[in-house]
Amino acid sequence: MNETLRRMKESGAADGTGTAITEELNDPGGLFESMFTPGPSKLAPPGAHGAKEIPLDMIDPWRDAEHDAQPFKPYSADKLAELAENIRQNGVISPVRLRLSPFEKGRYQILAGHNRVAASKLAGRKTIPAILMQATDDEAKLILVDSNLYQRENLAPSERAFAYKMQLETLKHQGKRTDLTSGNICLKSEEETSGNVCQKSESRDSVAANAQVSARTIQNFIRLTYLFLPLLDMVDAEAIPFTAGVSISFLSPDAQELLLTVMKDNDVKAITRSQGEELKAFRTQLDEETILRIFGKSKKSPTVKPQSIKLQVDYSPAVTKRLAKDEVLQARIRAVIDAYVKEIMA
User: Fold this and answer.
1) Each residue of 311-340: pLDDT tens digit?
2) Domain range enclosing 248
3) Same domain flag for 139 and 73
């Protein structure tokens, strides 16, 4: 067992949902451990005097070369309106961070401040104060993740999941570059001409304490990215507890699809922690009957559409009309037919 995994086994989850679930992590290079060193956005940016007013119509949301959007959800309409009103009254107090767009000359890409940009547009502003940063694609991702992950409150589990995954994948892409994983972190702003803005990396334990999460918790959040979107939405909505979501993430795509189908057909709207653990335990032999048993359901009998049969009687219209409305007679006839069906089907 490598050192990273040993520390993960010894650490405890800090998400408040109970004992988290662990699976061995293949991390021979210690890249998972390097997630506990701060990214570029841990730097104190240049003072407000270095900010420039940038036209809002020249600013684009962040995306990478694969056109993947950022993992963080925009503010709700109410919260965005509240921020816009604050900006109308007080202006944008904290400058956003931008870099030159790698996709279109003369435009800018948001590294930190998507909601401030959106709220400023809503407030009717034409420009926004911004710190212009020189950042590679990998550095840009780390700025994006850190500026949201450690500064925004009430992030949904899905946001944290994809943020941690982006951070880990970026560090893996960095390979053996020590300037982002174990040594000094340096970035230059376009206002800085005399040198670099540098900050010594903090220790893994110190950063973990600042983020108030453990290595195990980060690993479990990344597991959530293996969930089908409807199941992940249920984790965000707390219909599935965090630890149950981690358990279900170990199901194969086919098993998750079957699970969703069974839940829909049987009006199951929530999964408990114990049910999640049981689903994981049976993941190699999960079928409809097992899922129904876990949820305390039984397989529904196929719905049979009622059929009618005609009986010929030789009575006057007045009598037949009366017999047609006689419920006692109908019940007796059904009883006779039921007994006959049981006899012929035996």
Assistant:
1) 777 788 887 878 777 877 777 787 788 778
2) 228-294
3) yes
In whole angstroms, what is the distance from residue 225 CA to residue 162 CA?
Answer: 6
- Say yes or no: 148 and 245 in one domain: no
- Count up the domains in the chain and report the number: 2
Q: What is the 3-state secondary structure (H, E, C) of the chain?
A: CCHHHHHHHHCCCCCCCCCCCCCCCCCCCCCCHHHHCCCHHHCCCCCHHHCEEEEHHHEECCECCCCCECCCCCCCHHHHHHHHHHHHHHCCCCCEEEEECCCCCCCEEEEECHHHHHHHHHCCCCEEEEEEEECCHHHHHHHHHHHHHCCCCCCCHHHHHHHHHHHHHHHHHHCCCHHHHCCEEEEEECCCCCCCEEEECCCHHHHHHHHCCCHHHHHHHHHHHHCCHHHHHHHHCCCCCHHHHHHHCCCCHHHHHHHHHHHHHCCCCCCCHHHHHHHHHCHHHCCHHHHHHHCCCCCCCCCCCCCCCCCCCCCCHHHHHHHHCCHHHHHHHHHHHHHHHHHHHC
Tokens (6 digits) for 215: 């290595």
- CA dist 255 and 286 (Å) reads 7
The answer to whether residue 2 sits within a structural domain is: no
Helix (H) or strand (E) holding 132: strand 127-134
- pLDDT per residue as tens digits for the range 110-123: 998 899 999 999 99
Contacts of 215 (CB under 8 A, 6+ apart): 4, 7, 8, 11, 32, 33, 36, 208
- Give a yes or no: residue 249 inside a domain: yes
Q: Judge whether 105 lies within some domain.
A: yes
Q: Cα–Cα distance between 184 and 228 in angstroms, integer?
A: 38
Over the chain, what is the mean pLDDT? Answer: 75
Query: With a threshold of 0.85, does the pTM exceed it?
Result: no
- Which comes out higher in pLDDT, residue 212 or 263? 263
Q: Partners of 59 in the beta sheet?
A: 108
CB 180 within 8 A of CB 142: yes
